[in-house]
Amino acid sequence: MRIRLRYGRRLVALGAAAAVTVLLAQNTTTAAFTAQTGDTSNKVSSAVTFCTTPGNAKLPAAMDTAVYQSQPDTNYGAVASIGVGTGPNVNAYSYVKFTLTSAPLPAHCTVTSATLSIYASAGTAPGTLYAYRANASWNATMTWNTGRVGFAGTPAQTGAVAPSGLQQWDVTLLTRELYAGPDYGFALKDSVDNAASARYQTWSSMENGTAANRPTLDITWG
How far from 166 is each of 59, 101, 116, 169, 193, CA to CA, in Å? Predict the structure, then answer.
């Protein structure tokens, strides 16, 4: 009789445990916690280390220019178009900078996406175009021979457009690096220099008369 009674109690206990398990599965909840052990010198508590104010911003270009090997002493910092190119002695690079301090990242937030958009006004295809970080400080008066800076980081890439249209690069990683500093902006070029067959891509600059065609940087953080 005692054996049967003990066995019956075990079945009742198992049934109750199963019911509690089902109830917990159907009623989940999330909460912050603070836990403390019997030893008051040991304590575990939650901490706010996540982004509480996610957001986004579209930044206009603050400065841009281009340098052309074929025009080595001419600056293009105040013209309506800039561009890149490749070919024997006709390489060309473009540079564009945005004011990242106008979109400061809130505490504990990081850049989740960033897209560089530039409107192509003319070009030859095919080709692959790279966006890097500029590797040093520059200004709009630099030329191929004077003040020209180089390239840094892992390039983002996009295809050439002929004859015109919007071009975009996923520059999420590069933008994170620019926020970390130093911020010298972006440097753009063809994927190769001195191509056997010359090709080029021309873009609307920040001085272009059509505001919608000027370079922008779209940033999202979270």
Answer: 16, 26, 10, 10, 23
**Residues 6+ away with beta carbon under 8 Å from 53:** 106, 109
What is the tens place of the pLDDT at every residue in 175-187?
Answer: 999 999 999 999 9
Q: Environment class of residue 151 by beta-carbon count within 10 Å: exposed (0-12), middle (13-18) or buried (19+)? A: middle
2 phi and psi angles, rounded to 5 deg = -65, -35
Check whether residue 12 and residue 64 sit in a common domain.
no
**Dihedral sign for Cα atoms in the order 180, 182, 185, 187:** negative
DSSP state of 199: E
pTM: 0.79
Residue 210 lies in a domain: yes
Residue 151 CA: distances (Å) to CA of 12, 132, 186: 73, 6, 8
**Domain extent for 36:** 2-45
Does residue 129 share a domain with residue 22? no
Q: Which amino acid is at 15?
A: G
